[in-house]
Amino acid sequence: MPLFFYDWWLDAVCGEGNWAVAIARDRGGEITGVLPHYRTRRWGVPMILLPPLTPYLGVWLRYPANVQKRERRYAFEQKTMGVLLQQIPHWPFVVHHHPPSVQNGLPFYWAGFHNRSFYTYSFPTGSEPTQIWRGMKSSVRNKIEKATRQLRLRESDEAAIFYQLNRQSFSRQGLTIPYSWAFFQNLDRVLAQRGRRTILLAEAEGGQVHAGIYLVEDQHTRYNLALGGDTDLRKSGAIQLLLWRGIRGALERGLAFDFEGSMIPAVEGVFRDFGAERKGYLRTERTKNRFWRLLRAWRK
User: Fold this and answer.
1) What is the DSSP letter of 31?
2) CB of 77 within 8 A of CB of 104?
3) Which CATH superfamily is domain 137-274 in?
4) Selection from 182, 180, 240, 184 nearest residue 210 by Cα
5) Which of 98, 218, 235, 241 is deepest in the core (most CB within 10 A)?
6) Hey, what CATH topology would domain 3-119+280-299 get?
7) pLDDT digits (tens, 9 = 90+) for 141-189
8) Residue 265, SS3?
9) Alpha carbons 116 and 96: distance in angstroms, whole number
10) Considering Cα of 241, then 243, then 244, then 250, what sign does the dihedral take?
11) Is the pTM of the predicted complex or chain greater than 0.90?
């Protein structure tokens, strides 16, 4: 399963007792699909939302060996998702972000959900760094080369430094960082204990930190969970250098790299310029009445 589906991850980002999981099984009792979800309240109203710093939380399927034919795979998906959806409460607002491996949104549509396409960029396992380098936009290569001459990268356990850089990136866009230091500190502690995170900082010779990247990984993929940079040092190329080091580190360890996309045009452009493959993933929403549908439209 993806990292974000593990019980310890959900305990950290949702709080123990604030999440549940729908489970589908075959006739022999083996699990064929799961749908974990974060249960919370907003304005006193029960909702199922995405927890902070969790890009994917939706359906995960375990395909039986005898569903190689396309029509049998689709039938399996329809049946399994239908069983999972029966276990989701009919609360006023329900949302899931499904991992890119899940492309079938029909069972959700039939259950009254509104399906939307979101996008990320990724490099699959086995990608060659030299080919990636050639496929980048030339300006990205220039920024990496410039930053390599002027900055040094170091691994760090200083989550507080990264958090401040991350907060600056939100402030630059006129936004408030959507998670507290206490929340981030706890998640970092949980990830560090399990060896699932890497913090990389780019700094000048005098020790001034230009930018940082927060990487997390499971058995198959390394994710760019968060980036942050000093607002006054944005032109140093530190972000591009950090992403490049993150990509290379993933491929050297036999992992895929997921930029953990963004629908913000300026951020999407940074990721796209690396020449990665664009992948769509599903956001499914269900609203109970007209008020919540209007609120959803307003939030767009």
Assistant:
1) E
2) yes
3) Gcn5-related N-acetyltransferase (GNAT) (3.40.630.30)
4) 240
5) 241
6) Aminopeptidase (3.40.630)
7) 999 999 999 999 999 999 999 999 999 999 988 889 999 999 999 999 9
8) helix
9) 11
10) positive
11) yes
pLDDT per residue over 267-281, tens digit each? 889 999 999 999 999
What are the DSSP calls for 46-77, one per residue?
Answer: EEEEPPTT-S-BS-EE---TT--SHHHHHHHH
Q: Is 137-274 the same fold as 3-119+280-299?
A: yes
pLDDT tier at 293, thresholds 50, 70, 90: low
**What is the phi/psi pair of residue 223, to 5°?**
-115, 135
The domain locations on the chain are 3-119+280-299, 137-274
Query: Maximum distance among all alpha carbons in the chain?
Result: 64
Does 296 score more than 60 pLDDT?
Answer: no
- Predicted local confidence at residue 234, as pLDDT: 83
Question: What's the number of CA atoms in the CB half-sphere (13 Å) around residue 97?
Answer: 19
Place of tokens 């080091």: 245
